[in-house]
Design brief:
The structure is a homodimer of 262-residue chains. Chain A is of the alpha/beta class. Chain A has a single domain, classed as Nitrilase/N-carbamoyl-D-aminoacid amidohydrolase, CATH 3.60.110.10. Helices cover 24% and strands 27% of the residues of chain A. The first copy, chain A, has six helices and 14 strands. Chain A has a six-stranded mixed beta sheet. Chain A has a six-stranded mixed beta sheet with strand order 6-7-8-10-12-13, with helices on one face. Chain A has a two-stranded antiparallel sheet with strand order 9-11. In chain A, strand 2, helix 2 and strand 3 form a beta-alpha-beta unit. Chain A is globular, with a radius of gyration of 17 Å. The interface between A and B is medium-sized, with 35 and 35 residues.
């Protein structure tokens, strides 16, 4: 079963973002992927300090989600589209999941915000598992997946074969350029991706933006911690990887004893 | 406040192990450390497939612990001594803690065994926090600390400044030699050490054996994930590091929301 990780440049607008979704989702579908994941709050774009991202209204966000559903249906591919979302007087950082039929399957909120995000979004409180055909997956968003292994453990214990991890790290304006996967001098992010897979014996699919000064890249990690493929640093594109659901046994996730930590 | 990580060669006997404890604890005390930690089941030695380690009786183990307490008292240093231990018809992989007065403060069992260890030990069921003067610490043993971040989270949320992590990885007979900290081609262990510190904003002190083919080394990681010091690969010795308890805020550990994962 093939899954895809889309690594777009930072969108200049919602329209630009949707164009990139269409382009990369079409590419992923042509390569046979059943699902493609985009990076954190790709609609309208993560509110970086060094980029002007106008806040979108809920009407614009809902309209964008409709458009993503149309793209999913037209290409017969499920799409994980991280975005801003207003609901019940809350403002969430979440990821919507559109089925290959163009239906919204639901969303996963970011529940453990980075301290720097406390004044931007409200944290969600629920976790859920998604199913696309035979594939069961969870979603953990950026900081949550990097610093809270429990968010991945939860999905592994619910039977997830993969946890998708939309994130943003880096900048287009300043920073260091990375050229080697998991280099000891790089920030910790790629090392955390390895851990999330091998702590649970499941696949971990981490999806970031293509930026000039990325602090890590998009990658799919096997249940034994091996990096199966990663996106070239700084380059927009999609990687499609054939995963073996039989290898995602969840062995170490299932051996976790929650009663020991209460 | 100074803490010490002792990296001995594999002991040839309990007596040899106790000689190494005396030598390295004395060295650590001379350098001003308040506590020194030894690697996993150092008494009588981890039951590797490629080494003949005779099983010790509970009488021998208790006698060895008494000797460690004498060494602690004589050098005015607390000692974390991982060992085999029989109690209540169970056979545990645990770490005893001797105070600088030579009293046994208690022990931490290994509660999440590696699948390969299921027929060797029985898993423990309790976690506890230890105090040596101002220093609060937890202990997580090998696999538990490498694959179960929850074991470190627990201690961080209880107020630990440091989690000590006695382990064994590698062999004296076969394998690859590592020369660079956190090299991307090395096994994942050193990368996991980084994560355990920065997931919780506490220090993480990982303590292994000096072996010809180590798969990782002993290291002390700062609350921001930076490796402060590590033992030279393959060389017996002790590293003493001055840590700043004020930096071990436990910030990200305390922001963890356990209610989200039940």
């Amino acid at each position: 079963m093939k899954i895809a990780l889309a690594t777009p440049h930072f969108p200049t607008s919602i329209t630009d973002g949707l164009n990139k979704v269409e382009q990369l989702a079409t590419d992923a579908a042509k390569q046979g992927a059943v699902v493609v994941c985009f990076p954190e709050t790709f609609i309208p774009g993560y509110p970086l300090a060094d980029v002007e991202v106008p806040k979108a209204s809920q009407e614009e966000l809902a309209e964008a989600l409709n458009k993503v559903c149309e793209i999913a249906k037209a290409n017969n591919i499920a799409i994980i589209i991280p975005m801003d979302w207003y609901e019940d007087d809350k403002f969430y950082n979440l990821a919507q999941v559109a089925s290959a039929n163009g239906e919204v399957l639901g969303y996963q909120t970011k529940n453990q915000l980075d301290p720097s995000e406390d004044t931007t979004w409200q944290p969600g409180t629920e976790r859920r598992l998604f199913e696309v055909g035979e594939l069961k997956f969870g979603i953990t968003i950026c900081h949550e997946g990097f610093r809270y292994p429990e968010s991945v453990r939860w999905a592994a214990r619910e039977g997830a074969h993969v946890v998708f991890h939309p994130y943003l790290s880096g900048s287009d304006l300043k920073g260091n350029q990375i050229t080697e996967w998991c280099n000891p001098n790089s920030p910790y992010y790629e090392k955390a991706m390895m851990m999330r897979a091998l702590e649970n014996t499941i696949y971990f699919a981490s999806v970031g933006y293509a930026m000039k000064y990325q602090e890590s890249t998009s990658a799919i990690i096997a249940p034994d911690g091996k990096c199966l493929a990663y996106q070239a640093y700084g380059q927009e594109g999609v990687i499609v990887v054939d995963i073996d659901l039989g290898k995602a046994t969840g062995l170490l996730g299932k051996r976790f004893k929650p009663e020991l930590y209460r």
